[in-house]
Specification:
With about 130 residues, the protein is of the alpha+beta class. The chain is about 30% helix and about 30% strand. The chain has 2 domains: about 5-30 and about 80-125, no CATH class; about 30-80. A 6-stranded antiparallel beta sheet has the order 4-3-2-1-6-5, with no helix packed on it. The longest helix has 22 residues, at about 35-55.
Length: about 130
Amino acid sequence: MAHPPVPLTVQGEARVFGHDPAAVTLQVVPRTTGWRAGRALRWLAAGVIVAPVVAVLPPHAPWAVAAGTGGVVLALRKWGERFTLVGLEGSCPRCGAPLVHHGSTPLKTPHSTACEGCGNPVALHVDLSDVEAG
């Protein structure tokens, strides 16, 4: 049984328009090419398998097209997931409340989250150019 990957700790900034940036620490899991390809192929296969099954439901073509398109879109999203955000430590630049991250999510550049204290959108900026994902 494979062991879960160990998260890496990287430094970044939390930015809110009109306020000075605040330092944040993110825990990210680098995703290998093999992991990304496997997850993408699973979604692609699911779309290919589900499309003919739902095509028997009237109206036939829209269901099949939607299933196939959904499989492709989700496969592309998994293929593009170079890093997964699993943890966040820092405070909101506007109100100082701790920033909270629940679960794991694909890390975007910049990554958007919301402050639970003031409700403002917070953009997380991190430079991952030095981190190898494989």
